Amino acid sequence: MNRDARAKHAAEREERLRRANLLIEKIASCGRKFFRNEDDVSHFEIAKGGHLYFVDKYTYEDLPTFGYTNTHRWLRYFTEGSTLKAFVLALANDYIVHGHPIPTGMLLSDRDRWAYGAAMDEVRDLALELGIWAPTAPDATPAHQEAEDAS
């Protein structure tokens, strides 16, 4: 990949990171206010080495979104639970890294998985507007499909 292509790829990833953080801020501002601790909101950031991290709003820990994520660090320092962990990792690996929309099931369900009530419509609308989620996106995430195809 030449320098211009790398710069374009980095700029696109930065834009997707910005959009993902906007969605996290929306989730933190409505419903049950997940990802919020008083004035602090969880967010994604890219470290100097180019790796993507999720910063938890309560523990302030940088949690790696690459490699094996079922580690002591995630179990101890991610404060939102397993459903939102799956959402964060799909947002990181499918959307920010690969540019694919997150799976339909992450935001669309026959039940109110997050107990957000009507606020969930606001979250879905913003995710759709930002290009993060599409109601017709496959339920199996592209990143996971690639891993399955390799085995």
Give an overview in words.
The chain has 151 residues and is mainly α. It has one domain (3-150). 46% of the residues lie in helices and 10% in strands. It is built from five helices and five strands; from the N terminus they run αβββββαααα. It has helices spanning 3-29, 72-77, 82-97, 119-130, 142-150; strands at 36-37, 40-41, 43-46, 52-55, 62-64. The chain has a three-stranded antiparallel sheet with strand order 3-4-5. It has a two-stranded antiparallel ribbon with strand order 1-2. α1 (3-29) packs antiparallel against α3 (82-97) and α1 (3-29) runs antiparallel to α4. It is globular. It starts with a helix and ends with a helix.
State the main characteristics.
single chain, 151 residues, 3-stranded antiparallel β-sheet, two-stranded antiparallel ribbon, 5 helices, 46% helix, globular
Architecture blueprint of SSEs:
Elements: H1 3-29, E1 36-37, E2 40-41, E3 43-46, E4 52-55, E5 62-64, H2 72-77, H3 82-97, H4 119-130, H5 142-150
Antiparallel strand pairs: 1-2, 3-4, 4-5
Helix pairs in contact: 1-3, 1-4
Concise structural overview:
By secondary structure, this protein is mainly α. It is 46% helix and 10% strand.
